[in-house]
Design a protein that fits this description.
The chain is mainly α. Helix content is about 55%, strand content about 0%.
């Protein structure tokens, strides 16, 4: 039975380390692409939702209010126009400029 030489062991170690590095890099690129593709799941932004996703996004947005029915009505209108709902149950409207800037005739925010 022959023994492995030191240069061979070093060579195998370098190959294993390189494969590990490539695998980690691939995971970072993949997670970056997924978060960019899913937009809303990570950081919202105008156009990050599809119309069929508005109902669930608005359900979450309006979950903490005592005025659920009007909140859902206006949130869904805003979402269908802007394809975006800010994260959380209050605030964060800067994530969706269209949602933030749509005002009533009186100049008050239209979107909850």
């Amino acid at each position: 039975m022959s023994h492995f030489s030191s240069p061979l062991i070093s060579y195998v170690f370098v190959i294993i380390a390189f494969c590990f590095f490539v695998q980690l890099s691939f995971r970072e690129v993949t997670s970056s692409v997924v978060s960019t593709t899913l937009g809303h799941a990570r950081n919202g932004g105008e156009g990050s939702l599809r119309p069929q996703e508005c109902a669930s996004a608005c359900e979450q947005r309006c979950s903490a209010t005592s005025h659920k029915k009007p909140c859902l009505l206006y949130c869904n209108k805003c979402c269908n126009k802007c394809l975006c709902v800010p994260s959380g149950t209050y605030g964060h409207k800067e994530e969706c400029p269209c949602y933030n800037n749509w005002k009533t005739q009186e100049g008050k925010p239209k979107c909850p």
